[in-house]
Amino acid sequence: MEIKKLAVSSSPHLHSQNSVRRAMLWVLAALAPASLFAVYYYGFYVLVLLVAGPVVAVASEALILRLRRKPITAAFDGSAAVTGLLLALNVPAGASWWLVVIGALLAIGIGKQVFGGIGHNPFNPALAARAILVVSWPERMTRWVGPGLVSSATPLAEYRAGNLVPSNFDLFFGFRPGSLGEMSVFLLLVGGITLIYLEIIDWKIPVSFIGTVAFLTWVLPREGQTAFFAGDPIFHVLSGGLILGAFFMATDWTTSPITKRGRVVMGVGAGIITAIIRLYGGLPEGVTFAILIMNACTPLIDRYTLGKSYGSVRGAA
Amino acid sequence: MARTFVGGVHPPYRKGKTCFLPIERLSAPKTVVIPLLQHIGGINAPLVAVGERVFFGQKIGDSDAPIACPVHASVSGRVIALEKRAHPNGREVLSVVIENDYADEVHPSVEPKNMDDMSPADLLQWIREAGIVGMGGGGFPTHAKLTPPAGVTLDAVLLNGAECEPYLTTDHRVMVEWAEDVVLGLRCLMKVTGVKQGYIGVEVNKQDAVAELRRAVASARDIQIVPLAVKYPQGAEQQLIQACLNRRVPKGRRPVHIGVVVNNVHTAQSIAHSLRTGLPCVERVVTVDGASVERPGNVLVRIGTSFADVLTERGLTSEPYKLLSGGPMMGIAMHTPAVPVCKCTSGILALSRAESPATEAMTCVRCAWCIDVCPMLIYPTLIAQYGERGRTEEAEKYGALECHECGACTYVCPSHIPLVQWIRLAKSDIYARRNRG
Asked: Do B260 and B406 belong to one domain?
C-alpha cells in the first residue's frame, strides 16, 4: 500500500462527540417533560404555543442569517430552537399565539442576531424577549389561567395579596397556574439534574441561585412585616419561575460567567435580586429581571473571579 | 484508591488491540536515518564522514552544548549520506544515513557495566554517553534533569508509567515484560541523584503492569507503586507530580526546582538495558496501530528505521488519512512516511478518516468546558481568542505560557475550535515579542 497523501493538522487528532447541536438537543429533551405536562394540564392549545416558539425562532434565525450572508446551517444547531421553546415556556397559558410569534422574532432578532448570533449575545435571548413582551403587553403577559383556561392568579400574586396559596405538594408537582414551563418543579428538576449529570450545565448556578432565594426569603420580612426569620422559603423556591430560570436560563452558556467562582457569584446575585423583587418590588416575580441584570454583569464577574492557575504556587526555589 | 489531578478528560482509550500483544522485534532495515537532533537542546555535530564504516553502537554525533545528548549508530555499515532529512518534528534535520551491512558488528567500546561498581558521577556520565533522553515523547536529555539547581535538594524520583495517551501501549508492555529493568533503571536514577524514595505511577487500567512491578520491587521499601486514576493527561509531568506527591511545579519552573525528577518507565528501562549490555540507546519500543494497520502491535525498532519500513512490515490495509508520530492527543501528524523513528517516538499511528475526523470550527459559545477540563487551570478559549487577534499580553495574562498542549480543551470543545493551535500561536508570538524586546 503506497501512501500518496496525508492529512496534516495540529494536535489533538481525537475529538469528543460533543457538539453544540448535541448539547442543545439534550436541553430540548430535558425541557420536554415539563412542556408536555403543560399540554396535559392546560390542553391542546398550549401545544400550538410550544411548537410556534421554536419553529418561528429557527425560521427567523435562518432568514436573518440569509440576510447577513452567513451559512444558514447555524440556524439548525438547536440553539434557536431552545430559545424559541424557552420563550414559549415563559408565557402564560392564556397568551395569544401571536404573542409567542412576536416574542420568538424578538428573541432571535433583537436578543441574538443583532449582536452577531450565537456566542455573542449579552442577554439571554428568550428572557430579553420576555422582558419586552411584559413591558409591551403587560395585561396579556399576565393572563394566568387554570385548567380549561379559566382565569386565575399565580401563587406569587396570591401570596402578595395575602390570599391562600396552593399546597407545597401542588406546587411541587405543578397543579397551579403559571407560565407554561414553570409549573412542575418535579419535572423541571428531572430535566435540570439530567443536564448537570451530563455536565452540559454547571450545578453551581442553580444551587447558589435557589439557595440564596431560599435563605433570603426565610430571613427577610416581606413588605409590611417586621419579623425576621419568619419567611416561607419552601413556598418561594417552589413557586414562580425560579426552578425554570435557575436550571435552564441562568445557566445559558453564552450569557453566564465562564469562571467557576463567577458562576457562584452569578447565582447568588440573581438570588438576591429575585428575593428583593419578590419581597419588596413592584412585581410579584423577579426571576426574569434578576437573570437579565446578572447577564449584564457577566463580563465584569469574569474579570474579577479569575482563578489561580496550576503553576501559581509559591515557596519553590 | 487511585490518585489523580484536577481537570482532565476521558477520551476513548483504544488500547485493546495492542496491550496484550508481546513486544516483537522488527527486522533491521536496509538503511537507517539517524537525525543528529533527537532531544531538546543543541544539535549534535557529526563525528563520522560519508563513506566511513561505522559499528553498531558507535557514537556518531555529539555536542558541547550544555543541554545535548549524543546519538549512536543503530546498525553496522557504511555512512552513505550526511544531509538534511525529514524529521518527525516536522522540520528537516541534519542526519547520518547508514547502509546496513547486517553484520551488527559491535563497537569495541561496548561492554557491560555494573552499577554497584560505579560512582554516582560515573553513572551520570554514562547516562549521557549512552544517549539516554526522555522516551515518553519529551526527549529532554536525561542526564540534564538529574542535577538540581543550587539550593535544591532532590527528594523524589518519579517514574511515569501512566501512559494516558489513547492507542499507546509501549510503556505498558515495557512494564509488563521488562519490570526488572524498569526497577533497576529507577535504582540507578536514585543512586545518581542520592534520592532515597522512588515512585512508579501507573494508571489502574494496567493491573498486569502493576503486578509485575510489585513483583520486581518485592519487599523493598524504597520504591512505591502509585495507582493512578485513568484520566487524560494523567501522564503529563505536572499532573503526575500533583497526583503522586501532591505538589505543584511553579510557573516557568521545572520539576527539579521542587526536588523532583520525573522519567518515563521506558527511559528507566533503557538505562538498565544500556548498563547490562553496554549498548547505548539504539532501539526502542513503538506502538504501531490505527485502522489502516494490518497487524497492530508493539515492536522493538532500531532508531532510524523509517515509518515506511515499519508500516511495510506490519502491513497497511488502506491508505491512512493521517500518520502520527506519538499518540492522538499530543502526537504530530507526519507529511511523509519517510521520517525515522527517533528516541522519543512512542507510537506510529496510521489512522483512518473515521478514527480522526476533520471538524469545522464554529464560534465560541462560552460553554467554558475547555476551562473546566484544563489540568493547568488556565483559560484556553480566552487565550485562543486573544492569540488569534495577536493580543499577546492578554493571552499571557490568561495563562498561555503554562499550557503544555495536552489538547484536553480542544477535545471537549463543542464548537470544534482548534484551541491548542491558537494557543501555540499565542505562545510563539509571546516569545517573539520577548526576543524583540
From this structure: no
Query: Which residue in chain B is spatially nearest to A298 when comparing CA positions?
Result: B366
What is the three-state SS of A222-242? CCCCCCCCCCCHHHHHHCCCH
pLDDT in tens, B124-168: 999 999 999 999 888 899 999 998 999 999 999 999 999 999 999
Chain-chain contact of B248 with A310 (C-beta, under 8 angstroms): yes
In a domain, residue B37? The reply is no
Distance CA A145, CA A151 (A): 4
Chain B residues within an 8 Å CB radius of A258: 366, 368, 371, 379, 381-382
Q: Is there a contact between A239 and A154 (Cβ–Cβ < 8 Å)?
A: yes
Which tens digits make up the pLDDT trace of A203-221? 999 999 999 999 999 999 9
Q: Is the dihedral of CA B397, B402, B403, B409 positive or negative?
A: negative
Same domain, B265 and B380: no
Domain annotation covers residue B257: yes
Please report whether residue A233 resides in a domain.
yes
What DSSP line would sit under B349-374, residue for residue? EEE-TTTS------------HHHHH-
Contact flag B9-A254 (C-beta cutoff 8 Å): no
CB A245 within 8 A of CB A273: no
Kindly state whether residue B384 falls inside one of the protein's structural domains: yes
Task: State how many domains chain A has.
Answer: 1
Of A82, A103, A1, give the one whose Cα is nearest residue A247: A82
Do B262 and B154 share a structural domain? yes
Residue A317 has pLDDT above 50, yes or no: no
Residue A55 lies in a domain: yes
Final residue in a domain of this structure, among B249, B277, B305: B277
Whole-angstrom distance, CA of residue B396 vs CA of residue B434: 12
Determine, yes or no, domain membership for A136: yes
Q: Is residue A1 part of a domain?
A: no
Q: How many domains does chain B have?
A: 2
Range of the domain at A115: 20-304
Round to whole Å and give the CA distance between A180 and A38: 6
Q: Do A13 and B381 lie within an 8 Å CB cutoff?
A: no
Contact state of B367 with A310 under an 8 Å Cβ cutoff: no
B19 or A143, which is more confident? B19
pLDDT bin (cut points 50, 70, 90) of residue A155 is confident
**Please, which pLDDT band fits residue A316 given cuts at 50, 70 and 90?**
very low
Distances (CA, A) of B286 to A166, A179, B199, B208, B339: 69, 62, 24, 19, 14
Model pTM score:
0.93
Nearest chain B alpha carbon to A8: B333
Average pLDDT score over residue span B194-223:
95
- The domain in which residue B378 lies consists of 369-436
